[in-house]
User: Fold these one by one.
Assistant:
Number 1:
Amino acid sequence: MLAGLLTVAAYVLASLGRTASVPVDLAPFLGFTLGTLAVAHVVTRRLAPRATPVLLPVAAALNGIGYVFIARLDADRAAAQATWTALGVAGFAATLFVVREARLLDRYRWTLALLGLGLLLLPLVPGIGYTVNGARLWVGLGPLSFQPGELAKIALAAFFASYLVEKRDLLARSTWRLGPISLPDPRSAAPILLAWGVSILVMTSQKDLGSSLLFFALFVVMLWIATERAGWLALGAGLFSIGAFSAWSVFEHVQTRVRIWINPWPAAAGEGYQIVQSSYALGTGGLSGTGLSLGSPQQIPAAETDFIFSAIGEELGLLGTTAILVAFLVMIGAGLGIARRAQHPLDKLLAAGLTTIVGVQTFIILGGVTRLVPLTGITLPFVSYGGSSLVANYILLALLIRISNDNGRQAAALQEQL
Amino acid sequence: MNRQIRTLGIAMMVLFGALFAQLNYLQVFRAESLANHSGNNRVAVRDFSSPRGEIRTADGVVIARSVPVDTPFERLRQYPEGPLFAHITGFFSFTFGTDGVERTYASELSGRSGDVRIRQLGNVLADEPQGANVTLTVSKAIQEAAAGALGERRGAVVAIDPRTGAILALQSFPTYDPNPLSAHDQKAVRAEWERLTASADKPMLPRTFRERYAPGSTFKVITAAAAIERASELVNKDYPVLKTLDLPQTDQGLPNFGGGSCGGTVPNLLRVSCNTGFAQLGIDLGAEKLAGEAEDFGFGSIPPIDLPAAARSVFPDAAAFRRDVPALAKSAIGQQDVSATPLQMALVAAAVGNGGVAMTPHVMGEIRDPQGRLIRSADPSPWQQAMSPQNAALLRDMMVGVVASGSGTRAAIPGVTVAGKTGTAQTTGDNAHAWMIAFAPAEAPTVAVAVVVESQDGVTEATGGRVAAPIARAVLAAALSRQPPPVD
């Protein structure tokens, strides 16, 4: 409810700043926003009554702030985003409805693996896959287009969780010693090598640095949590270094990314334009921002997708960007809390994995637009414009809420026994 | 597994902590340098497209306003009167910045000044400050009279209220239209700028306060003032009637204008604008007294007018004349190295009319916020004390003689006592700048003027009395008809 009001208030303010009048479509907007949220809320109360009450409002607030900025930047895209929000909430409801217990996903392990890989590689299929901004991530079917990779990461996280829970003992055994370092058995290391290979494949063929980094980080983290062996982290870091270094030496676009990360100013009119404009936006915003719709974030290319955080930083200042950071931290904290409280290892691992997706993805893009790390394009969960991303994130949210509900039920059952 | 999950949580905290630190670096520590970075036009775009107050004349005519348009800049600055007030309002260009009132009162017009902001605090919903409206002291009626009287002759007209320093008209020709410079298509704006700056006529030069001319015989007012203030024994000295004054240190003589003969006491010398008499008076006064008086009238200082980049008028240092008596003689009649802006000469007339005090010149009358509440208003203050009131009255009476029966009769207005002084500053050959300074009603002036018409090719006999006096008369008459006579 509060998230809804926040969104509507921001929307009205944005319009006031632009035209000094209350938007004419206020009533339908109010109805739509509150209606969508009410549906999501009621579905949660019905299908997962014992779930944590934190996640949905935080996600809704992020979604709402994102929507306000998209509406302020590009009215056509705002209409599309509203539709996608509705679809996202539908996906959220459907997930809660279909997945009555997260552990049941175990039964569909290989289906999920195939689905994930299939979705991931779908853009490479000639005829339906196509390239936007140099990255081959898109699938077009008639008038519909989407990024299947967004859904793939959830399917793969579920597959990883189910696979690793079964094989965790095997993978935890270290039979391979190299001086003081103990490494896992090469045979059981096969999955991580496979994941690494797939990430490299995705990166090279689709030129999507952000997603491959996310997949890789996700898998290594899940492997480490499942096996409780820090050796996997070391191996992952090593493989990451090798992968990153070879990508840097082989691909020019990777070199460019690194160069404009270290110093974008000489290329401020060329390759560094976007990141320089992002810095300008954040700097101009300062502490309290220029005010909604009173800045010029439209000067940043892709301001409503990858760079929406910079747009927020320009118009809402450090206060706004900090609020976004806090919102994500609350979401991550809630997600990891669910993971810790989960009784079953599969629930635990899945919740941790899904939370890792949100956390790492947020860090990759926010670190990129603030020039903390080299920029690798990826959406900011719930905030950026993008249908596939929004729907995928609502499904992810539904899974976390489902696990949270299972926890609550078990805790209640436990109390009854006592 | 919980230990790993906790570690993951800490790792996330660290990553987000790093993000927060980086955000502080960008949005606080480096915010100012990023916001004002040369490649960052956000502040410029915001200033250019934000609401901006109107500029109005004293008689209520809107001469600059912002209208909403459908371009990325959102608002277009318009000057409904075209070139008439160009040198007062200035222009408002994205590429070339601003000039005139648009520059001087930029923070008030854009609503970014502290005064305007504080008053808007109550209006929370207007999250962007609305610009305040600036009302000038210039009136359209007097400005039109000045523009009409000067016509298409190169020159300048300044009208000022001697009592307050309020500028009533400020006409400079050639002029320009500020609208094309304030347009949004920057390619067209640049083309117009090139055209205007390349023109030999210098249409963007406000000749009223940024151009200096030899003041010619109008400077004799200051020479006369120097005698009255600093060497009263010379005022009633009877200067011989001469056709040409023999100058020491040279075989060149200094002739009267048009080859006439003249002489007598200072009042008569001023009335007929006698070169030989005033040149000798200058020599008799000496460089220190003449330079000191010029300084008292404001020469050597930039008049503190609220328009950008006013020029200072020049009278050479006394030391420069020590070995050059002919230069002193010529400077005493406003030639040689003396140069003055029309604004400065208007201030000379105004000071004589206002009991010896030149008031600070200003074009801003008052500034009100969009709700009509007063933010600032002009606060008249003295600029230069040039003469004592008694001495100023003496000089005034001499100047009345100029218009009553001397060289400036064409400035006379029936029923009104006009005081004035003509000037004809020779440039090359027979060409000359024609000058007139005047004020009226002489006994309690409400308007003072300075007129200069630049030398025109092929036009000889362009004396101040013939060419400039009628313009002065027209502007004085227009100003007097606008102002009710003072109540005794």
Number 2:
Amino acid sequence: MNIVICIKQVPDTTEVKINPETGTLMREGVPSIINPFDMYAIEEGLRLKGKLGGKVTVITMGPPQAKEALKEAISYGVDEGILISDKAFAGSDTLATSYTLSHAIRKIEDFDLIICGKQAIDGDTAQVGPGIAEWLDIPFIAFVKKIEEATKEYLRLERMMEDGYDIIELPLPALITVVKEINEPRMPSLRGKMRASKYEPIVWTSEFLNVHPDRVGLKGSPTQVFKVFSPKLRTKGEIIEGDGVDEKVEKLVSKLKEARIL
Amino acid sequence: MSILIDEEKCIGCTLCVKACPFGAIEMRNKKAVILDNCTFCNLCIPSCKFEAIIKTDEFVRVADTSAYKGVWAIAEQRRNKICSVSFELIGEAQKLAKSLNDEVAVVIFGNNIANLVDELLYYDLDKIYVFDDPLFENFQDDIYSESLAYLSRKHKPSVILTGATNIGRSFIPQVAIKLQTGLTADCTGLDIDETGKHLLQTRPAFGGNIMATITCYHNRPQMATVRHKVMKPAKKSEVKKGDIINVELPKSIRPSRTKLVKSIEIIEETINLAEADIIVSGGRGLGDPKYFSLIEELAKLIGGAVGASRAAVDSGWIPYSHQVGQTGKTVCPKVYIACGISGAIQHLAGMQSSDVIIAINKDSNAPIFKVATYGIVDSLHEVIPALIKRLSNK
């Protein structure tokens, strides 16, 4: 089974904070990481390869430094890493990004399955995965929490819903997005690390992909950012003091009643 | 490049360098320079106090936007019940339609849903588009997205709002690609701009650390998914109103390529997270999985849902479907009660837009207290039983 995993390099948002005085992002030493949900996609791809054989290719669109994310993926045991990088792609929204990635995936011969993380933790859109499936016109299922059965022709899987889950069968080739519950990502192996240290990812540019110039980057993006601002900062609330638990609880309840909260 | 530095205005203060999350601005000869790895996120623009960062936009594909009329809300139903987010979408659609001086329509999919259509008639709508067919018995991406794209091409709405639910976030991105238009995910604020024509879509990014307002000036429909529990639900009226339009499926519609084998509902004793006005969450501070029974008891007593921190889920104390936070669910209830949760930034990302946050933790330095409206510094093993006791005898 030939599997393509789409990943994104994101700032480790755990450390992105806003300076309350200037209202700007404080990014001192914010490291870049592979989007956490994409780690589950990589792991699932490697597990499927382990069962069914084949090849796992990881693909990302981003600036040249996104090569680091691909090299990290190699360290887990991925076979190949492809970077889609071109100035022309800057400013892409989810329509343009999914268009560009779908073009790149078409260049990968004989893929059976595309796996994406549920969403990226910087943009949080969850739109690129379904978008790629639509551009490629292949079946798509989001929020997959378990693959029950897999052959080269079909998958039987569980899709997480708010009130439970759905069991779904679909023919391949197809695209799925995965949630955290699906697996527990492995650590890199020593062999993987050694291969990664020497690995040079493949780089594909706009010209190579033969994309339409009006469909990529800012030009190909119907949405634009009108403004950005800091969210209303929550002000530090009130610590309820009291003599013993019962008194604190009594005070809390009366405050909640006063404010008509409970 | 569309982000430029006006060198005459730039005084070299380096504020923009600090504001850029991608390290794409550098100082050269005391002037800011935008580097090639700029992603046009625009975060540098408000950081500049001297208006020295300029954005230029070029768009090629321009639709005749005036030909698109009507604000649509997609009513989501599961197991013959309309989800609460649908009424929030209707309320929001009515507000937008008023500003646009336009009409409001609802689109609903299902099988044997005449009762639901009848219920919608009490919500002061102009039109209700109904897909009532065995094909729509269960949610299937292909069928839903093709049908909505078909309806939209036919009637050309100006705005389409969908709940940012698992269903909404599955199929709506595909509709947006089919219609070649913009889609903004998980909005928490919607408005019409000062020209009275365009939708301003505000949404959190970077786990809620940044808010962005997104526009879609030149393409239609303007599409958005909307976060649960943020918007006010529409009011039910006394009288029925609205034209019911039963949509004939086009012959061209393809059978679904995916097959739903079974839809399994997990019945919990408490309501599910997305629908909840109150959420009681437990973290590692519980000390032992058995104490989730305390969380459940409190949740049941006040009509809330049970949430959990990542630490509790990763320890195997409670299923992943309860996890709140960056790699779990984002929730926005009226009241969020965090018990024994320290408040890592990933957890805050999932719940900090709740109206009221109550934190119970014995560590007074826990970061959760920085966002809590009310905090009790004490052992949750004593506070929760006392709270249950106090609330039981009203």
